[in-house]
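Dear colleagues,

As part of the handover before I leave the project, I'm documenting each prediction I ran so the next person doesn't have to rerun anything. This entry is a single chain, and its sequence is reproduced below.
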Amino acid sequence: MKYKKHSIYLILLTILLFCGCQDRLFMDREYEMYFWNNADYPISLYSIMIPPYYNTNPMPTVYPDTSLPYWWPSENIIEILPHDRRVYYSTSGDITGRYDDCRSDTISFFVFSTDSLKLLGWDSVRKSYNILQRYDISRAEYVSLGKTCFPPSYAMRNIKMWPPYGTYDTSGHRRY
């Protein structure tokens, strides 16, 4: 009887430890950086924040240079369907540590029409700077925003962007 009582306590203690400490002891919490497409059409997102970062040759441009690379950065472009979101980076560590890898406190995110990229090709889009939106987001802004999206949300109105906030309606169509 005495050992049965100790066994029950041991089992309860094990269950409590497992339930209370599993996030800290047994699992790494996964943090994600993602981008929302609130437009009615597919978009493509390019940034040096999208892995792989080190496999590009030559090294990518960094802010304040907001030009597009000469080479087709296919590994750093993700397509996002209408009214969907895509994770572009995940880590078990500090999410803003990704900024440390990029040699700048401000990172540019470029939003393209997926159809324009497919129809015109990278060289034409790059030469004419045919982008829907460019965001220049600092580490502090990224932390305070919590999420990034196209068209820009009201919470994003104060970050540096081109064209300016208010150019698009909530469906991603240009206002005239």
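The first strand starts at residue 31 and ends at 37. The two ends are 83 Å apart (CA to CA).

All the best with the project,
I.
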